[in-house]
Amino acid sequence: MDELLLRSLTPSVLAVLVRRGADFAAAEDAVQDALVEAVRVWPGDTPRDPKGWLVTVAWRRFLDATRADTSRRRREDRFDEEPAPGPAPAVDDTLQLYFLCAHPSLTPSSAVALTLRAVGGLTTRQIARAYLVPEATMAQRISRAKRTVSGVRFDRPGDVSTVLRVLYLVFNEGYSGDVDLAAEAIRLTRQLAAAIDHPEVAGLLALMLLHHARRASRTGPDGSLVPLAEQDRGRWDTGMIAEGVGILQAALARDRLGEFQAQAAVAALHADAPTAEETDWVQIVEWYDELAGLTDSPVVRLNRAVAVGEADGPRAGLAELAALSDSLPRRTAVAAYLHERDGDLATAARLYAEAAHKAPTLAERDHLTRQAARLNAERR
Amino acid sequence: MAKYLLLKHYRGAPAAVNDVPMDRWTPEEISAHMQYMQDFADRLEKTGEFVDGQALAPEGSWVRYDGEGRPPVTDGPFAETKDLIAGWMIIDVDGHDRAVELAGELSAAPGAGGKPIHEWLEVRPFLTAPPTVTE
Q: Which residue among B1, B127, B134 sits closest to A131, beta carbon to beta carbon?
């Protein structure tokens, strides 16, 4: 059975229930029940109309649950047994679900969890495993998130930028467990791009594809980090790069530049270089200038300092770096790299060790420790 | 979406404001303290932020490899060890500010006289997997 097909139907099935008047939280539970049922029944008896099947089963589950609920509360059943199969504007409804699950009243981690379940069709257990928290904790996080958005009107258009931030968070979480969150983020962004015509949605999709294309080369066989310059470019997925570049070019042609398009442009320039030496750093600096104009992020200025160091030499990069706060994550690692390029190995070794001490991830810490060790061994 | 370890020390942390050893509390004060800790963990589970919590026995032993075919060497316990961990709680929260906020609440657990202990808790971020987007 095709799990991806099943999951891709999740948002439209859920939207049908909500359109019929079911409240979001109960509808979402009913759809999860229907998905579990489909996993059980479909392998032996795949329905001809999978979506129709899911809607029927989910609606029945919803009615059962509501009836149990209403009889407890001695309320009249407000719902028709068999509603007329009204028009199903699936695309619009899917978009509304993205807005709801990324609603600004949710914290980022709640929005991520809710999006993965209600739009992505993942089970609570899968999401819990992906984020390495107990299933009970994730279940609470999701039901709390559902309560938070329960009063939100379903037919109000939302802000697409909040949705993009949530999808970007999912993508950046990478791969940790049996669910590939990066691939899932791409699938959900693709689905979003089909539902709304927006250059930044395209920009984010392009950015994800261009990064995902390099995944196989990003880590060594032992799980260690392989920096961009040392990656085996023969292992980059050229089909995915071509797709990302195509999507980006179409988006840029519309002349409504945004952060994700600019970031994707940088990624595209890296992807375009046959060797690290042939990277067009001058153009990359220009894109970071664009990015700096769009956001006031010190991270952008740090990345720009790296690019300047490559385009105009390490001294120029270090001069850019001087304006940035010491407390900025990864600044010390960049300083170490630029000092090494400048030939000051003693300073570079000291800064690599200091950067390793401050590294936010295990792979980076190990990588930076190795850099320090390499320079110290060379200097002996 | 960042994990933090809230570390509670038997010894090695700066002195708490309400610094009375537990064996000088009344039994009711001890019960109230335990209840507070339990309620705190329950509340975190409900907010979807709880990962794990464990208490440790105060004394353990040191163990090290002693060469091929030989049993490990054990030693201790050493009463003079400077730093002694009493237990931990692992939380999964949106960021550092929230971790600090929660540690502050945990530090307010009642002690002697039913008053908050104001004990110092250590807040340590987990090293994570590297992000997908790096440049």
A: B1
